[in-house]
Amino acid sequence: MSYVICSPCIDVIDTACQEVCPVDCIYFDRGTDRMLFINPDECIDCGACVPECPVNAIYEESEVPPEWQDFIQLNAQWFEDKPAARRQVDDLAPART
C-alpha cells in the first residue's frame, strides 16, 4: 500500500509534500507536469506528506475517494510511461485556456 496524489494537485504543484518525504518518492518534471506523482514502489507509507499538502490531495491508497480511483493507476503509470500519464491528466482535468 502506498500514498496517492489525486485531482486537487492538478495545476497547483505545491512541493511541500516533496520536501518532507524521507525517501524522496514524490516526483514531477518542472515545466511539463501539471501535478506531482508518488512512486508506489518507493513509498514507505509513512504519511509525512499528507499534512503538508495544502489542497488535501494525498490519500492512502485504500482511502482514495471513489471519484479519484483513476489516480491510483495514474501515479504508477507516470513512472512507466510519462506521456501516457500526462495525457490522462489532461483527460481528467482539461487545461484552462
Describe what this molecule looks like in 3D:
- This protein has 97 residues and is an alpha+beta fold.
- The termini are far apart.
- The strands form two sheets. Strands 1-4 form a two-stranded antiparallel ribbon. Strands 2-3 form a two-stranded antiparallel ribbon.
- 25% of the residues lie in helices and 10% in strands.
- The model has no long low-confidence stretch (mean pLDDT 95).
- The protein has one domain: Alpha-Beta Plaits (2-Layer Sandwich).
- The chain is globular, with a radius of gyration of 12 Å.
- It is built from three helices and four strands, in the order E-H-E-E-E-H-H.
What is the domain tally?
A: 1
Order the strands across the largest sheet as they lie in space: 1-4
The SS-based structural class is: alpha+beta
Oligomer: single chain
If helices are DSSP runs of H or I spanning 4 or more residues, what is the number of helices?
3
The main pleated sheet reads as: 2 strands, antiparallel
Strand and helix layout:
Layout: E1 3-5, H1 16-20, E2 26-27, E3 37-38, E4 58-60, H2 70-77, H3 82-92
